[in-house]
Amino acid sequence: MSDWIKCSDRLPEEHQDCLVYYHEPSVNFPNLHFMTESSFYNGSFEIPEEVTHWQPLPAPPAE
Q1: d(CA 3, CA 44)
Q2: What is the 3-state secondary structure of 1-61?
Q3: Sign of CA dihedral 2, 62, 22, 33
Q4: Mean per-residue pLDDT for 1-18?
Q5: Alpha-carbon distance 11 to 61, whole Å?
Q6: pTM for this predicted structure
Q7: Using alpha carbons only, how large is the chain's radius of gyration in Å?
Q8: What pLDDT, on the 0 to 100 scale, is given for residue 8?
Q9: Starting from the edge strand earliest in sequence, which strands make up the sheet with 5-6, in order?
Q10: In this structure, are residues 55 and 15 in contact, taking their beta carbons and an 8 Å threshold?
């Protein structure tokens, strides 16, 4: 897999699917972070959380 890219450095192409990394504030776990797949369109990711880093999805396995 490729390296994480800071959103402040560069954003994905429009309609690009990617793996995203974001912080989820929580009372019990203040430093909890998550990764999920998301699409980038209309200048933002499809998840409501603030994404801090992203990377392209890896190629699918060869059959």
Answers
A1: 20
A2: CCCCEECCCCCCCCCEEEEEEEECCCCCCCCCEEEEEEEEECCEECCCCCEEEEEECCCCC
A3: negative
A4: 87
A5: 26
A6: 0.75
A7: 13
A8: 95
A9: 5-6, 51-56, 16-23, 33-41, 44-45
A10: no
CA nearest neighbour of 40 among 4, 2, 10 = 10
- Rounded to 5°, the CA angle 36-1-24 comes to 25
Task: Take residue 45 and report the two structure tokens written for it.
Answer: 């990711």
The length of the chain, given as a count of residues: 63
**Tokens found for residue 5:** 């890219």
Alpha carbon distance 30, 58 (integer Å): 30
Confidence of residue 33 (pLDDT cuts 50, 70, 90): low
Q: Which is nearest to 54 in space by CA: 23, 21, 32?
A: 21
Structure tokens at 49: 């959380």
